[in-house]
Amino acid sequence: MDTGDAAPYCKRVVLKLSGEALKGDLAYGISPSIIDDIAGEIHQVHERGVEIAIVIGGGNFFRGAEATQLDIERTSADYMGMLATIINAIALQNALEKKGLPVQLVSALEIKEVAEPFSAKKARRYLSNRQVVIFAAGTGNPYFTTDTAAALRAVEINADLLLKGTMVDGAYAHDPKKVKNLVKFDRISYDEVIARALKVMDSTAVTLCKDNNLHIKIFNITQKGNIVKAITDRNIGTSITSSAAIDAISEDV
User: Fold this and answer.
1) Domains in the chain, start-ordered, CATH in brackets?
2) pTM score, whole prediction
3) Residue 247 has what pLDDT?
4) N or C terminus of the chain: which is more exposed, having fewer CB within 10 Å?
5) Torsion of CA 162, 168, 170, 174, to 10 degrees
6) Rounded to whole angstroms, what are the CA distances from 208 to 13, 100, 204?
C-alpha cells in the first residue's frame, strides 16, 4: 500500500545514512543521481512537518575498521573515516540546499571553515526553527561507529525515532543476501537484537536506544520513496523497540 501521502507518526527523527548508500553502482564515491534522490525524499519529509537530522557515514570513501589492510593504526584510521563523513555531509548539504532547504552542518571534529562545532542545544534550536541538521564526523571519538553516533545524537536532540537506511528491507536472523527464504522480523526487541547479535546495528547503539527508550526503524533506503514511507507507515521495515511495546501491540491485534 502506498502511504506516501499519509500523515507522519513522528515529530523529530534522526536518519542514519551509510556512505555506501550514496555510491549507488559506483565502486566508490558519490552518485549524483542517488544523492539527488535522497535529498528529494528528505525534502518531502521536511514538507510534512517532520524535523529531521541526518547522521552520515563515510564507507563509500574509507572505513576505519578495515584500515588494517593498509597497516594504518586504528585510531588514525578512524579519524580518516570521520573525515570521509565530512566529505559526504558537505555533498548532502549542497544537494539539500539546491532543493531550497535550510541546512546546518555540524561536526564532532572542529573544522570551522565548513561546519559548526557540535552543540546539542543549538541543534535542537535549529530543528525547532525548521532547519535540517547534518551531523558529521561521528561522535568525534575513535572506536565508535556512526550507528552509535546516530543513537547518541538522537538521544541528545530528543528525537522520537531513529531511522536506519540499509541495503535490505529490515532485520533478519541471518544475512538475507547469503541465506535464502528467510523471514523478516516485523518487530523485535532491543534485547533480542543484542542476544542474537544481529548485524543491523551495533550493540552499543542498540543498548543506548534501549536505555533511553528510543524507537528504531530499519528499512531499505535503496527503494525510492522509502524514506517518506518510513515516517508515515509503521509497518515498513523492522521496528526495534521494548518487549513491553511489542506485547502491547500484540494484544491490540
Assistant:
1) 12-252 (3.40.1160.10)
2) 0.92
3) 58
4) C
5) -120
6) 16, 34, 6
